[in-house]
Amino acid sequence: MDSRSWLLLQPDPPEHDLPADLRARDRFGGRDCGWVAQMRPFVRHFSQPGQCVFDPFCGFGTTLLAAALEGRSGCGIEIDAARAELARERLRRHGVDAPIAVGSLPQTAIPRAIDLCLTNVPYFGCRWPSDEAGPDEGQLYLENDYAAYLHRLRDIFHTVRRALPEGGFCIAMVENLTIQDRMLPLAWDLAGVLRGLFVAREERLLCYQRDKQALPAGATRSNRSHEYALIFQKTRETPCIASTRAELRAMAEAGFAFEVFGSFASWLSRDDDTAPRPPGDADLLLPDDQGRFDALLHWLHARNYELTLWGEAVLPPLPLERLRAHWYLRAQRRDRLGRLVRLDLCLDAHA
Ligand SMILES: C[S@@+](CC[C@H](N)C(=O)[O-])C[C@H]1O[C@@H](n2cnc3c(N)ncnc32)[C@H](O)[C@@H]1O
């Protein structure tokens, strides 16, 4: 993959296409099947030969076929049992052995140790022919509520994050949608979800040379002529010590009581923030007091901090019970030089 921010994709050669007989057996007619050519540059660039590529929404096994063609192993999870079987059959015809589990994260175990997550997410608002309620439970195509849909994606990618090694990449392909003439910025919302879990690395635009199709009014509309590849990495981003110190000073001057503890406490006396292994965050102990806690959250919010409990965005007022249940609240912001300040707020149980 070169350094351009966009890739102009050519359709797959017939031997990589989803075979017509398998397509015909799919409930959707294989409508949401991606291209092998779309995945191969990402497999090459973000994993090493012999490593394992995982797709949590593996559909017809396109990602796993791309991984095999690039000399990687693969594994996937697909909630639709019939589709998982089609993917297995497709891979068998290519002589590829890549396990596919039927189910969904976080409940279903990832079949083997993984090095890269590469996927096309199931889009919100797509039709899905639901038979009985049972077998389709967990099917994201059937989720009617957009906030709940994003929440479930967050839970799934949270599990992916845990399974990836330090430094591993998580790449999600997604587009913004128009549903009934309303734009739904799914790509940007998913980027927000992933930002709570990973460090954003880059975006690529995947462009397809396709004629705009005539689409029925009122449907989920997409001409699929471009799509984003959102590239995130599981890595420890080092906050800026100088910027963090300045923020702690401002917090104290605003009258908030806190105690700095853990690894950051030992750095406070230093001027140099280039020494090895700087702390990943500043841990702060707060008084166990609802009013003072909410006042601090309002102050942080006004200074443009993002406030999250285990990756989920929160706003003040926030009951202390919720903080206790999660152990810490993360407050994070960047200054105009892009420098990161990350504060983890905990309650002082002994205060
Ligand atoms: C865009 S398709 C993936 C197609 C795949 N990239 C390919 O080209 O072969 C998304 C898939 O996610 C599956 N899916 C939906 N909800 C899921 C969930 N909660 N867990 C796992 N798979 C799910 C759908 O059944 C669908 O097959």
TrEMBL record:
Question: What are the residue boundaries of the DNA methylase N-4/N-6 domain, all occurrences included?
Answer: 37-88
Tell whether Methyltransferase is among the UniProt keywords: yes
Superkingdom, natural source: Bacteria
Q: What is its EC number?
A: 2.1.1.-
Q: What class of enzyme is it?
A: transferase
Keyword vocabulary terms for this entry: Methyltransferase, Transferase
Q: Name the protein family.
A: Belongs to the N(4)/N(6)-methyltransferase family.
User: What is the recorded name of this protein?
Assistant: Methyltransferase
